[in-house]
UniProtKB/TrEMBL annotation:
Function statement: Involved in the recovery of exogenous heme iron. Extracts iron from heme while preserving the protoporphyrin ring intact.
NCBIfam families: Dyp_perox_fam (TIGR01413), tat_substr_1 (TIGR01412)
Any coiled-coil regions, as ranges: none
Family under the similarity heading: Belongs to the DyP-type peroxidase family.
Name this polypeptide is given: Deferrochelatase
Reactions this protein catalyses: heme b + 2 H(+) = protoporphyrin IX + Fe(2+)
Chain ranges of the Dyp-type peroxidase N-terminal domain: 73-217
Pfam families: Dyp_perox_C, Dyp_perox_N
Spans annotated as Disordered: 1-23, 295-315
Record's subcellular location: Cell envelope
Entry note: cofactor: Binds 1 heme b (iron(II)-protoporphyrin IX) group non-covalently per subunit.
Keyword match Protein biosynthesis: no
């Protein structure tokens, strides 16, 4: 977790009446799609528009739609989604570049249809038959090992070099990395699972699941007004996330048009970390002690130095005894971009809960996902600094990790990764 964590609110949902019983997903879009959420090549800023008003009927959540084709892949600049699935695949023995290209072609076709609210093209299961697209996004990426398996080592980006080891890591290799990575998000749990199942079935004999994780966020319209999300520690989490309106947003988050390698133009790099929160230990702390660990008030996310959530943190302010109001090892102090050479990353995480261990300990925490043009200038310097003295490190454990090259969006008639696999 970092100070730059994300709660980028989705655009307002449509206000159309609910679809009559039995209306198909395609027909539903005919009545609601025109006013639903549309995000595509020019829609980065739209992903940060106001969240649905509480007056908006919950049934209209289903009409929200993101676009598959565009300059960037979906699932990066859109707001946090209520349900998410992360899944990594390894290519099957004997599968290479030809099989990978066919797989990405199938996956892209499936993602395009499902994001439009249409049935999957190959053996649809009817799981989402009664729903609209529910702002579904499907995002594809390539891991470091993918390039050797497909004979494309010369096309592997330098930015995809393995992440360094951190002293706080307790990584499970079986749940880390992978040849291919897919991120699925939606504002309806059945729509999200429907996409996960379709992607898994499309893999066929070309690839096998390496690991899979499930996450969630607050549902649209659940709060009285749009607000930054809270994590499972109860802390407001997302105050300083970069926004498309920032002058340097694209430079920090996306590979430029003339960047290297050429097939990564308009793409980004995703760092994925499964961070377990040691909630039993955390919840033993009094709220005031929790606030010192983070450096912000728990009630409203304002810095301990005063003001509101968006007030600039005063790192030099002291109390009457001369002690720093924001402790030197506070998480929010350490992760500030101005304390890390301007390092920035777009955070778009999911919370997770995978049951309760035999001793009563919850297996819960954060599926940390951050996006940047170069992880060596984004995630790595911040994590190194956290590794040296973050007060929060006592209450979290990094259990899985991955780094993936996520190419730019596919143009109409293309599939994701085509410029790499057919270039």
């Amino acid at each position: 977790m970092t100070e730059q964590s994300a709660r980028t609110a989705p655009s307002a949902d449509a206000t159309s009446d609910p679809a009559p019983q039995g209306l198909s997903r395609r027909a539903l879009l005919g009545t609601a799609g025109a006013t639903g959420l549309v995000l595509g090549a020019a829609g980065a800023a739209a992903g940060y528009a106001a969240a649905p008003s509480p007056a908006t009927p919950l049934t209209s959540v289903g009409s929200g739609r993101a676009m598959f084709h565009g300059k960037h892949q979906p699932g990066i600049t859109e707001g946090l989604q209520a349900r998410g699935h992360l899944v990594a695949f390894d290519l099957a023995a004997g599968a290479g570049r030809k099989e990978a290209a066919a797989l990405l072609r199938r996956w892209s076709q499936t993602a395009e249809r499902l994001m439009a609210g249409e049935p999957a093209p190959h053996g649809d299961t009817d799981i989402a038959r009664d729903a609209g697209p529910s702002s579904l996004t499907v995002t594809f990426g390539f891991g470091h090992s993918f390039f050797a398996r497909t004979g494309l080592e010369k096309q592997r980006p330098a930015a995809l070099d393995p992440l360094p080891e951190f002293s706080s890591d307790r990584l499970d290799k079986a749940r880390s990395n992978g040849d291919l990575w897919v991120q699925i998000g939606a504002d309806d749990a059945l729509v999200a699972f429907h996409a996960l199942r379709a992607i898994q079935k499309d893999a066929g004999s070309a690839a096998r699941v390496r690991w899979q994780m499930n996450g969630f966020n607050r549902s649209p319209g659940a709060t009285a007004h749009p607000m930054t999300a809270r994590n499972l520690m109860g802390q407001i989490d997302g105050t300083r996330n970069p926004r498309p309106a920032d002058a340097d947003f694209d430079r920090r988050i996306f590979v430029p048009e003339d960047g290297e390698p050429a097939w990564m133009a308009n793409g980004s790099y995703a760092v994925v970390r499964r961070i377990r929160m040691l909630l039993d230990d955390w919840e033993k702390l009094k709220p005031a002690e929790q606030e010192k660990v983070i450096g912000r008030r728990k009630s409203d996310g304002a810095p301990l130095s005063g003001g509101t959530e968006t007030t600039e943190m005063d790192l030099e302010k002291t109390d009457p005894q001369g002690n720093l109001v924001v402790p030197i090892n506070a998480h929010a102090r350490i992760t500030r971009p101005d304390q890390n050479g301007g390092a920035a990353m777009l955070r778009r995480p999911f919370s997770y809960h995978d049951g309760i261990d035999a001793d009563g300990t919850p297996d819960a925490g954060l599926l940390f996902i951050c996006w940047q043009a170069d992880p060596l200038r984004g995630f790595v310097p911040v994590q190194r600094k956290l590794d040296r003295g973050d007060a929060l490190s006592e209450y979290i454990r990094h259990e899985a990790s991955g780094l993936f090259a996520v190419p730019g969006g596919a143009a109409k008639g293309e599939y994701v990764g085509q410029r790499l696999l057919e270039g």
